[in-house]
Amino acid sequence: MTTLIVQLPPRDPAAPAQEWSLPALPFVLLDKRGRTMRSGSAGMALLPKAALTVALVAARDTLLLRAKVPPVKGLKLRQILPNVVEDQIIQDPQTCHIAVDPEPAVNGVKLLAVIDRGWMRFLTEAFSTAGHRNVRMVPLTAGLPASDDSAFVGVPSATGIETDEDALEPVLDAATVAAAVTVDGTRSAVSQARADEAADRVAREQRVPVVAAMLGTVVTTDPLLAGDATFTPALAEVPRIELAIARGRLGEGMAVPANALDATLNAVAAGAPLTVYRLSAIPGAEPGIDSGASHWPDAHGASQPISARAIALPFESVARAALASRFDLCQFEFASQGWRPGRRTWRLWRLPALLALASVLVTVVGLNIQWFTLSRERDALVSQQTETLLSAFPRTSVVLEPASQMARQLDQLRLAAGQLSPSDFLSLSAGLSRSLGNVPSDGIASIAYRERTLTVTFKPTVHVDPGFESRLAGNGLAGQQANGKWTIKSASAGNAK
How far is CA 363 from the centre of its chain? Predict the structure, then answer.
């Protein structure tokens, strides 16, 4: 079974839903043994087809958190989940798609993933339109080197992690948030209560090592499209770095100005052990250029100490780690249905399907017309036979089978006139005698007459030639052989029946 692993870009918060599009996507194609078959970058329509497609959803589009979930399943669970995460996000939970980790709950606490429902629908429809049927959506943070957070597995996340309509970002201290969210076009101030809650979360979980991955620079959207009055031209000149943050299995993402990268990483770590990676060896990157390079100058041209110590993390390593993850965002209404015809498939098979349907309709209509014609011919023939019977024998009161009734009436007339009926014993035996031909007459072992039928058994030593049946037909008889016995009757009586 071949597997295609694709990295998805983050959603552009400034672009409306009708303008969403996907650029060329880096991918790696694995065979059934896990060996790399192909790698590169291609548009959605040109991606190679595989039995399984694994899409790495951008960390900035997903928020991984722990929450206490009631022990329900199916539709009830889907209805309850928005209420479970309502206090931990600022975006309307009804507009979010919430996926549940398949791992068993500990103390009723499970890992949840929150993503914008509209963006999730756009991604699934894009893959379906391109012909990818079996698709798994995995958070990109699931492919990062994991840190040990077993001490907090059964502990719900603090309410300091928040989600807005533009990006799912953690609330750190007021200064860092003000710098980051101003660039993204979100609110420029955070209440002191929320900052206190964020600080409390950091204090409780500061023992969990933090893993940060720098995924490259963010393509800046025209600030006029964002419509934010707090946007300044100075910020537009500063490149932003795409960050994926993982604290154990919890994860989020953000876009950080390059000159605030070190301060943001320090604030995210909050004293906990910090490991910084930079994504490297991205398929489709130009030769000699590391698309995941992490050495960006600040406003004064000095190098960033933390980013300079970043460890190279190959794209294929992230892809294989995400493939091993069991967490699939395609749940509830987005659950993979296997193969099902899409719009493109319908367009390809529309003409053959219509031709097949037309041929079936023509065949059915033709059969009905033929049956109707034959039925009318049968009724006309039966009517003619009934008329002939009644004209010859007007005393017949009930007519059920005109042909057989006519044959019986004629036999009765022959008997009344002293003539033998074709079905009498003498008539049948005389016809049998004339039909023997080369078969000796003393070769007959037994002969019986019952119900106007002659049953003849020949001796085992007698060979009955193949022309015997045709000679019977020539003498007005019909013969059939079964179990070594010949059943002989009048041909006219057989046709009448």
Answer: 33
Q: How far apart are CA 279 and CA 315, in angstroms?
A: 6
| pLDDT at residue 340, rounded to an integer | 56
Pick the CATH number of 420-493 from 1.10.3470, 1.25.40, 1.20.1280, 3.30.1360: 3.30.1360
Contact present, 50 and 29 (Cβ < 8 Å): yes
Question: How many other C-beta atoms are found inside a 10 Å radius of the C-beta of residue 11?
Answer: 23
pLDDT at 338: 56
Give how far Cα 44 sits from Cα of 2, 26, 124, Å: 18, 10, 12
Beta bridge partners of 4: 29, 53
- The neighbouring-strand residues paired with 449 are 454
Asked if 488 contacts 454 with a C-beta cutoff of 8 angstroms, the reply is yes
DSSP 110-148: EEEEEEEHHHHHHHHHHHHHTT--SEEEEEGGGGSPP--
Helix (H, G, I), strand (E, B) or coil at 27: strand
User: Residue 479 in contact with residue 468, Cβ under 8 Å?
Assistant: yes
For residue 247, give both structure tokens.
């604290």
Output the pLDDT for position 193.
Answer: 61
Rounded Cα distance between 204 and 86, Å, is 21
Listing DSSP states for 48-86 in one string gives PP-SEEEEEE-GGG-EEEEEE--S--HHHHHHHHHHHHG
- C-alpha distances in Å from residue 159, one per residue of 65, 176, 260, 494: 10, 18, 25, 95
Rounded to the nearest integer, the mean pLDDT of the chain is 79
Give the per-residue pLDDT at 369.
96
Counting as low any pLDDT under 70, the low residues of the chain are 147-206, 219-237, 285-305, 307, 337-345, 493-497
Check if the beta carbon of residue 304 is closer than 8 Å to that of residue 296: yes
Tokens of 412: 């009765």
Q: What is the pLDDT of residue 195?
A: 61
User: Which strand (E) or helix (H) includes residue 443?
Assistant: none
DSSP 300-326: TSPPPHHHHTPEEEEHHHHHHHHHH--
Residue-range domain boundaries for the chain: 3-147+203-219+239-286+305-340, 345-406, 420-493
Predicted structure pTM score:
0.57
Q: What is the CA radius of gyration of the chain?
A: 44
Cβ-based neighbours of 412, under 8 Å, separated by 6 or more? none
The dotted CATH code for 3-147+203-219+239-286+305-340 is 3.30.420.380
